[in-house]
Amino acid sequence: MTSRPPTLREKRRYVLIRVEPAGTVPDQKELYFAVHEAVSSLWGDATAALIHMAVVAADNEYVIVRCRRGTERELAIALTTVTVCAGQRISLRTVATSGTIESLRERIAVMRAPDTAVVLPDECTIDGRRYTVCNGSGQKIDVIEKGFKNTTRFFLTREDLEDI
Known about the structure:
alpha+beta, 2 domains, four-stranded antiparallel β-sheet
C-alpha cells in the first residue's frame, strides 16, 4: 500500500507538555485516559472527535500529545484542567507546539541540558538570616531558614539568588 501524498494527508500538530510536580512519571495509557476525559468533559464528544487527540510519547516529565491542526488551542485549554492521573495529583503545562515530533524532542534536549553557568550554593544569607538551599530544579529554588523554631520557606529564582 502506498502512502498518501503530502497534499492529501491530515495536518497534525504536536504539543509538548511538562508534567508537574517534577519527578512525576505518568503512565502513557493512563495519561491518555485522563486527557481524553478532560477534552470530552470540557468540549463535548463531537469536538473531542474533531481534536483527534493521542498521547504520542511520554518521556519522564515531558509528554508529546498529537492533535489535528487548528485544534491546538482547545487541546491546550483542556490540558490545564487535568489534575489527577492514575490517582496521582499532577498538573500539565503546555511548553510548545510544533508540526514535527523531532523539533519537540530537540527542544526537550535543550531544556534538559545542564546549566553550567550557575552553581547553587549550599547556604545563603537573606536580611541577616541564614538559609539552606534545599531544591534547585529548573529555574525555581527553594530555601529554608536554618534553625528549629519559626522556620520559613522562600521560593526564589536563580536570578534572585545571584543578586544576594
